[in-house]
Amino acid sequence: MFFLSPTRAKHFAAMVMIGDGVMALIDPARDARAWKRGPKPWRDLMHGLSKRPTLTRVIGVAQIAGGIYWALKQDEMD
User: Fold this and answer.
1) In angstroms, rounded to a whole number, what is the distance separating the alpha carbons of residues 22 and 19?
2) What's the pLDDT tens digit per position in 8-47?
3) In whole angstroms, what is the distance from residue 4 CA to residue 13 CA?
4) Phi and psi dihedrals of 11, rounded to 5?
5) 36, 47 in Cβ contact below 8 A?
6) Could you tell me the residue ranges of all domains in the chain?
7) Is the pTM of this model over 0.85?
8) Per-residue b/e over 27-59, b at no fewer than 16 CB within 10 Å?
9) Which of 3, 4, 31, 62 could form a cystine bridge with 24, CB 3.0-4.6 A?
10) Are 28 and 49 in contact (CB under 8 A)?
């Protein structure tokens, strides 16, 4: 059985945020299309983001910053 401790799960989530943010910077339309599954409002949002590369990149930068901040704060809290 695969199990992550709460600390490792948070660290993994921060890594995913950072990685997805980097992908949004590199290829914003493709990154938005990668998340196109889900409820209709979500699909509509992702479709809109795929047509707005600058906004998608800004969100990617925010994801990277948020992921790094979260990872650093986890170390302080644990």
Assistant:
1) 5
2) 888 889 999 999 999 999 999 998 888 778 898 988 998 9
3) 11
4) -65, -45
5) yes
6) 27-78
7) no
8) ebeebbeeeeeeeeeeeeebeebbeebeebbeb
9) 31
10) yes
